[in-house]
What does this fold into?
Amino acid sequence: MNSRSTRRQFARFGAAASLAALLPRGVFSQGSANKKAIIRADEEIAIVRPDLHSHFAEHLGSCTYGGIWVGKNSPIPNINGFRKAAVDYLKELGVPVLRWPGGCFADDYHWRDGIGAKRPKRVNIHWGNYTEDNSFGTHEFLDFCKLIGSEPYLAANVGSGSPQEMRDWMEYCNYPSGSTLADERAANGSPEPFKVKYWGVGNELWGCGGNFRPEGAAAEFRHYATYARQFGATRPYLVGCGPNGNDARWTRGFMDTLAGGRQPDGYSMHYYSGGSLTPLQFTPEAMYTQLNSFPRVEQAVIQQRTLLDGYDPQRRIGLFLDEWGVWDQMIGDEERRNGKLWQQASMRSAVAAALGLNIFNRQADKLYMCNIAQMVNVLQSVLLTDGSEGKNCVRTTNYWAFMLFKPHRSKMAVRVETDGPKLTDYGRTGRGAAPDPAPDLSLSASKLGGDMVVTLVNPRHDLDMNVDCTLRGVSAKPGRAEILHDSHINAYNSFDQPERVMVKPHEVAVESGRLRVTLPAMSVVTVRLTIA
Ligand code: AHR
It folds into this structure.
């Protein structure tokens, strides 16, 4: 545990002023520690692409059916079949890019099943063998994207599909008019081309996408890419299938096989943070084990980008993390009631989301797009409904964590330093491996013109943090802050108490080039400053 580093920090920074007096009584946990940090505002990293805050929706459980789509005849308030509450909340959050229809589902999805008046019923072999009626298909998805202001990202079927199927889907979506497929699209209600830019060439080809080896997956990519052409004005951006986690062997095998041929525009890795307990039963120990996967996510981003740089020094290939998030143990009854992988969100998962989003800011020069898994009802969702028939729709703790990062979008990320453990302190796992340090203060910052945004995360359940942060390279005026906090790691937003955990104003002091803020145990704070 990090009592070692906490004592060291007390000794070094014992004189740092505490803002404890500014917080309401009862906010504090057992102990507190003084933490030092530095924001180097003159050391720029890269623009925080809004696409780093993107989402993913699959035909899985009640994500698409029931979460997003309730149907036009539903008693649940809807806009042309789309759940109205979800539309309103997602518009407010802003979803830069939405990936669909999977996930594993994508590699057994035949897009023609989801267009036109007569839609066949198929079996969803990956997620419970239920009957998929295909009432939500290409037009519904693209209309939904338009409604919430998202850019679509379609994942094509490599596993049980064909290059022809993918190229036809592209022609159907993007060719303006005059071909049979474009005219069919028009007859189905969309005379204007959809102009879909992002196309995934399969999903998890190392697993549910066909159990390929990297060399085989790369051969599939070459084959599909040969026919995945530009139809109309939109140049397709083809995303190749990257590794499961930080698998260097996959990336070398895939990229070596592509040498001299068509390169992918994007390369997608997936990284889930497994949990050993069910969502609302987490102990601090189990939480720390899960949160300690985040330094490993950051190492994976750095190492995978370094590997890609060996093939692509100009960084033309964008690194995607198009599935990430916490994956806890499921509760059978809840899955039966609400759908597969229905997972409650808690203060713990909000902290996890914020640790991830801080990584994306700090590694903004290496990442092109990140998609949380998934948007509604499945895994680390931003919205939860009480199943597919349920009228209730709540904004989860994760929603509010994402909201606290919204001001970073399109700003320039800058370097930060904290005095906690280094990435290299998180080594191997398993028997014989040195124990991980406890999670510690996490920080990121970005700036644009006269604005600076700083987000700080305290992932400790037992320790408030008095942060004394030196601002280098700028002078700052007093700012304002917002906090997401609940001292209980398993606190959550229920249908009875939908706003238990949500963003509130918080105190921050800025003086003499330093920002001082107290982070109660289990909190995420975003500070907005005016700088010169
Ligand atoms: O997000 C759930 C599943 O996790 C996806 O279908 C798959 O791509 C991944 O293994």
